[in-house]
Amino acid sequence: MNAIVILSLSFLLSDPLSMATTKPNKASSDGVIVSISAISDGLELPARVKDHANEIFKEVEKYNIGKERKERNVLFAACIYIACRYSDKTRSMGEISVVANEAPIPDITKAIGFIAEKLNMDKNWLISIKAVDFIKRFCSKLGLDSEAVKAAQEAAVAYDNITDSSRSHVSVAARIVYAIARLSYEKKLLKDLSEGTGIAETTIKGTYKDLNLSTITPRWFAKPWDLKNLGRP
């Protein structure tokens, strides 16, 4: 009971796709129930991720969990999060929370733990996201070429290996992608990245000093003098 309050009540739903929805990118003041389909649409997820999330939900539903509107939204958010992880389409809990009627992140975390335990999943892997998990998506948003994507991925892996920074992994990923884009011939404005990733310009700027670009940027992609001339965003 104490481990996860939101999963303590009997479940009253039959199909998560048939439930009432609100605009997926905007929280509702009356606590209306969202759906796996609405959350998936709001996050622009492929159909296979939505289908996997529904499969997870159906398995968890057997445990008679959830009842209140908020509880259901949290459970749907957790199913989406897990499906994204297994499909290599990682989304942060913050991103998912926004389109799940502001489902509380601590509750989503607890729900993920419950599902992982019941369905024999690796909870540590599920919640241990890295900056590199967001790189491919952010590069795609900006239309970067394969060489830039590879450089950004290597930089993100290097960053994750050398630092235990408390910075959000999603904001670190955004800043790495921006730095790589500025180093390449595909120059991108800070505004482009902010709009493409949903990360505020001030957040991206604030992450800059923690990157240690001279250490994490692959030498085959940029030389020391290129990094010196890069400056601040």
TrEMBL record:
Q: Name one Pfam family in it.
A: TFIIB
**Classification via InterPro entries:** Cyclin-like_sf, TFIIB, TFIIB_cyclin
Q: Which UniProt keywords apply?
A: Signal, Transcription, Transcription regulation
**Keyword DNA repair set for record:** no
Where in the numbering of this chain does the Transcription factor TFIIB cyclin-like domain appear? 36-100, 129-211
The region annotated as signal peptide is 1-20
Q: Does the keyword Manganese apply?
A: no
Q: What is the protein's name according to its record? A: Transcription initiation factor IIB-2-like
Organism encoding this protein? Camelina sativa (False flax)
Q: What is the lineage of its organism?
A: Eukaryota, Viridiplantae, Streptophyta, Embryophyta, Tracheophyta
